[in-house]
């Protein structure tokens, strides 16, 4: 999917020869007001823009997009006023990102526009535009809904080095989010462990990463009992993908692990039919990790990154694993499977142990792991667990980039609920309490206690089953790529 072209401009936006002109509005105490950056546009309207907008019912709320013909007040024939919501002095980056995304969605079919949102936050305006203009039309006969073609971003000086750098990073990050969305949105008949691995290797190879794929024979030889067990019901065998970014200047090594279940029927503990189609997104963690590793290489981040990505399809069949089976995880721990629908933690167990063998300085895993994440935090708030100090660092960075991860505990007392009659641990408890935390406690069993570790449950946030909002359409969101990118950049800077 092509990104809309993004370019810097320092010319007067009111005189820009484009199809549409985007300005920000804010929700003031007495109605709609213009955000900074729209001054010359308002001058074109002889100072009457706010009055016109309130006549049209504008309030300046988030996700509010008002279009009005300019009738010569500006060179662009169409003005698009996009709401930032209430601001405290200045809008946050995320407010700018969402307003830019909503405007980009509203500009589908437009060739070229210019925005003043970049006067508020260039990187956020660029990311929001690129992500709001995302469409996935591979499977449509008539791809009539062409996205916005080009957005010029207004800045004080288009020739300065700093804005060029900021735009380049935003474009690279947005590209990683878009890649993740493409993978998540690809249907499960075309995206299965082997085809995902091929796509991951192609993406990573282009970016100069070292790649390795373990097929089912290699997984058997290596003793990856979790991945093999979960994959055993499918005619499409499992894989383990390894990607390595090894820059010369790296002082720190980070391990990334992402759940890659290309479709989750639940297996023999089969899921109900309603909304089972959503389980096409159960590889969103894998997609985010692959795209983030590729992004790190593109940005030449001076951090060593080893991605370990387990892939399987969870199907019921005559060869499927059963409730009651005992699996031996890579490294030798045994798990009694009491529910084949708690499959993510089984493939992650193999991957976490393998990732630990590389002795990373930090370990981050992400997964669409539990429906309980959505019960606890809803559809837009990832749950972040792990070792408290690193968990809180990941949460703070996730808040910074607007993905809004929230810290959750891993209470010790939950561990005994996973005691098994015959194995080292069971994969589920006998009750439904604290399902997200229980899954985290299970994973902790496969991570060295001394390892700074964060586990990000994205069951809800990875996939938008509701209406479009901000810079999200329906389907894959690309969460938590921007959190992972922020963490890697922060580690590159501070260790
Ligand atoms: N992939 C699901 C979790 C999920 C559910 C993600 C809904 C997104 C939306 C996971 O494999 C799963 O089935 N988890 C079970 C665990 C249970 C059996 C302990 C769940 O959440 O019901
Ligand atoms: Mn499941
Ligand atoms: Zn699953």
Please render the helix and strand layout as text:
Elements: E1 5-9, E2 20-28, E3 31-34, H1 39-44, H2 49-55, E4 65-69, E5 78-83, H3 93-106, E6 112-115, H4 122-132, E7 150-154, H5 161-185, H6 193-206, E8 210-214, H7 216-222, H8 225-231, E9 239-245, E10 253-258, E11 260-264, H9 284-298, E12 304-314, E13 326-328, E14 334-336, H10 344-357, E15 362-367, H11 371-377, E16 383-386, H12 388-400, E17 406-407, E18 425-426, H13 435-444, E19 453-457, E20 463-464, E21 475-476, H14 481-494
Bound molecules: ligand BES, manganese (II) ion (MN) and zinc ion (ZN).
How would you explain this protein's 3D organization?
This protein is an alpha/beta fold. The protein folds into two domains: 5-159, Leucine Aminopeptidase, subunit E, domain 1 (3-Layer(aba) Sandwich); 176-494, Zn peptidases (Aminopeptidase, 3-Layer(aba) Sandwich). It is built from 14 helices and 21 strands. The protein has helices spanning 39-44, 49-55, 93-106, 122-132, 161-185, 193-206, 216-222, 225-231, 284-298, 344-357, 371-377, 388-400, 435-444, 481-494; strands at residues 5-9, 20-28, 31-34, 65-69, 78-83, 112-115, 150-154, 210-214, 239-245, 253-258, 260-264, 304-314, 326-328, 334-336, 362-367, 383-386, 406-407, 425-426, 453-457, 463-464, 475-476. Strands 8, 9, 10, 11, 12, 15, 16, 17 and 19 form a nine-stranded mixed beta sheet that branches. Strands 1, 2, 3, 4, 5, 6 and 7 form a seven-stranded mixed beta sheet that branches. A three-stranded mixed beta sheet has the order 13-14-18. Strand 11, helix 9 (284-298) and strand 12 form a beta-alpha-beta unit. The longest helix is centred in the middle third of the chain and has 25 residues, at 161-185. The model has no long low-confidence stretch (mean pLDDT 98). Residues 261, 264, 282, 343-344 line the site of zinc ion. The site of zinc ion (ZN) has 5 residues, from strand 11.
């Amino acid at each position: 999917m092509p990104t809309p072209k993004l370019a810097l401009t320092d010319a007067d936006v009111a005189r820009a020869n484009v199809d549409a002109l985007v300005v920000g509005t804010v929700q003031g105490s007495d109605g709609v007001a213009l955000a900074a950056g729209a001054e010359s546009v308002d001058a074109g309207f002889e100072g009457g823009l706010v009055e016109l907008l309130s006549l049209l019912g504008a309030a300046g709320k988030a996700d509010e997009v008002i279009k009005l013909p300019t009738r010569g007040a500006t060179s662009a024939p169409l003005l698009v006023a996009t709401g930032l919501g209430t601001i405290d002095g200045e809008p946050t980056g995320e407010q700018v990102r969402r307003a830019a995304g909503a405007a980009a969605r509203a500009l589908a079919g437009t060739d070229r526009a210019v925005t003043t949102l970049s006067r508020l936050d260039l990187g956020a305006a660029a990311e929001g535009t690129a992500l709001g203009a995302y469409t996935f039309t591979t499977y449509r006969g008539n791809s009539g809904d062409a996205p916005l073609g080009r957005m010029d971003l207004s800045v004080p000086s288009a020739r300065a080095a700093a804005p060029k750098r900021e735009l380049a990073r935003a474009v690279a990050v947005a590209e990683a989010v878009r890649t993740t969305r493409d993978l998540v949105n690809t249907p499960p008949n075309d995206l299965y462990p082997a085809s995902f691995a091929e796509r991951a290797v192609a993406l990573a190879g282009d970016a100069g990463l070292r790649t390795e794929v373990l097929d089912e024979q290699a997984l058997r030889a290596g003793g990856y009992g979790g991945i093999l067990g979960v994959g055993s019901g499918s005619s499409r065998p499992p894989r383990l993908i390894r990607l390595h970014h090894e820059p010369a200047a790296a002082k720190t090594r980070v391990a990334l692990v992402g759940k890659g279940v290309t479709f989750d029927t639940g297996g023999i503990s089969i899921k109900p039919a309603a909304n089972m189609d959503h389980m096409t997104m159960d590889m969103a963690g894998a997609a985010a990790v692959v795209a983030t590793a590729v992004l790190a290489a593109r940005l030449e981040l001076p951090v060593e990154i080893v991605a370990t990505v387990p892939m399987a399809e969870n199907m019921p069949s005559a060869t499927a694993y059963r409730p009651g089976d005992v699996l031996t995880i890579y490294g030798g721990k045994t798990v009694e499977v009491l529910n084949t629908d708690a499959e993510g933690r089984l493939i992650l167990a193999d991957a976490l142990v393998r990732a630990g063998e590389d002795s990373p300085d930090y370990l981050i895993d992400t997964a669409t792991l539990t429906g309980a994440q959505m019960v606890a935090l809803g559809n837009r708030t990832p749950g972040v667990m792990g070792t408290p100090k690193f968990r809180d660092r990941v949460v703070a960075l996730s808040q910074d980039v607007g993905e809004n991860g929230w810290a959750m505990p891993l209470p010790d007392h939950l561990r005994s609920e996973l005691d098994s009659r015959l194995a080292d641990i069971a994969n589920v408890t006998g009750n439904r309490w604290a399902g997200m935390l229980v899954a985290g406690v299970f994973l902790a069993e496969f991570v060295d206690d001394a390892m700074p570790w964060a586990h990000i449950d994205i069951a809800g946030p990875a996939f938008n089953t509701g209406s479009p909002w901000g810079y999200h359409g329906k389907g894959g969101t690309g969460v938590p790529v921007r959190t992972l990118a922020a963490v890697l950049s922060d580690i590159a800077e501070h260790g």
